[in-house]
Amino acid sequence: MHIVAIDQGTTSTRAIVFDEKGAIVASGQREHEQIFPQAGWVEHDAAEIWTNVQAVIDVAVERARVSASDVAAIGITNQRETAIVWDRTTGEPICNAIVWQDTRTQPLIDELAADGGVRRFADLTGLPLATYFSASKIAWILDNVEGARERAERGDLLFGTADTWVLWNLTGGTDGGVHTTDVTNASRTLLMDLRTLDWDDDLLKAFGVPREMLPVIRSSSEVYGTAVGTALDGVPIAGILGDQQAATFGQVAFGVGESKNTYGTGNFLIVNTGEEIVESENGLITTVAYQIGEDAPRYALEGSIAVTGSLVQWLRDNLGIISQAPEIEELALTVEDNGGVYVVPAFSGLFAPYWRPDARGAILGLTRFANKGHIARAALEAVAFQTREVLDAVVADTGVPLKELRVDGGMVGNATLMQFQADVLGVPVIRPAVIETTALGAAYAAGLAVGVWADLDELRAMWREDARWEPAIDEEERERRLARWRKAVTRTFDWVDED
Ligand code: ADP
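^ thats the input. predicted complex w/ adenosine-5'-diphosphate below
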């Protein structure tokens, strides 16, 4: 039997066919347009995304030479928070999707935060008030698309994140489409109570979102409905997880204290806190990790780092010292060490754990000796140092020391970076055989629901290590380097003045 994962991401949509051992058989991928109508606005055409979903399913299934009867289930994973509102009767989106990066709703966020601060709903939702989450995006659509609010109150409009949009369309759309989301996606809206796992009336009122338009919240692993049309006609859809949670699931980080760190444009760290809801005192987000059927939900702390892979892009595009991202490794290896050079990529201030919007990026420790190799090396080290500091915040919040770090994402092909990471953390860094952990996690959740795999232990047993980096420096050296890094970070503070 096979499982198909649909990964509806920010820049592209993919379908991946997995076999029973969790190995990739074939895949299809299509990018969609990034629409920037004005500064700070980021949109997608949801209709284009749905067209792409159908296309990539057909490509992947054909390349895998399987038919619908060979596929036990479909899992969905997706870009999180992005808000889509559509007409229940026509199936047409009423405007472009407002993407998670979009900051147009800052005025509404400021207004809500004026009464109680940005942590006003943190106890209930695990989240600070921010434009990032879906709620203010839905409110914006209802307030700015003509007639939308009345139509929503009459029950004519539906809201969904990308998972819900794909599920509704895949299960028939206007003809009986299932209007459902899973707990992980719902936990990113700012509208769900983390404890009851239901939409909260006070939150709905605060954001002015009618309950009628919201999907039913279900677990991350159960049969939601059956695919209608495409090459997967008749196959049950049985798993949904937001992308970072799916990666955590694909990394089989099921135990308390187990974690994964994804190295992409930015980094996303998730640490499983089990059945406990841990409220962060260090600027992390509390979120649902997953829920399997009727089981209790598992929670997590999430930390993100804004600039990691994008620092490599900056060296490529703005400084031109490399022509392709992987070349940074060769360049870094032309020197023995960082030569005392530190790069602090505080391009838009410093996030967790510093929270200094007044900071700006800096290259420090320059001497006549320093060259581009040192800068390349310092840039890779900056990725590792930033990861260490977010992990320190997690340990401070949970009191559970880190035993190892499982990694995935585009930068983990860089062995030099991985060795730095192990050195700076003082624990092993482990890369799995399948680094498509996001799609794998969605496939696992779907396969579990239909009995392809019996339980989490079976999934754990399938996980394969590909490479491991052990710390190669002693504690004293580690502390020395960290102290130097922290000193470099403090030098970036207080750069942007009020005016
Ligand atoms: P995303 O999912 O955020 O689009 P990916 O997981 O595809 O990102 O990772 C791409 C990022 O990783 C880019 O920012 C790129 O600069 C960086 N990258 C890719 N390969 C390497 C490498 N070998 N060394 C360092 N950085 C790399």
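The first helix runs from residue 46 to 64.
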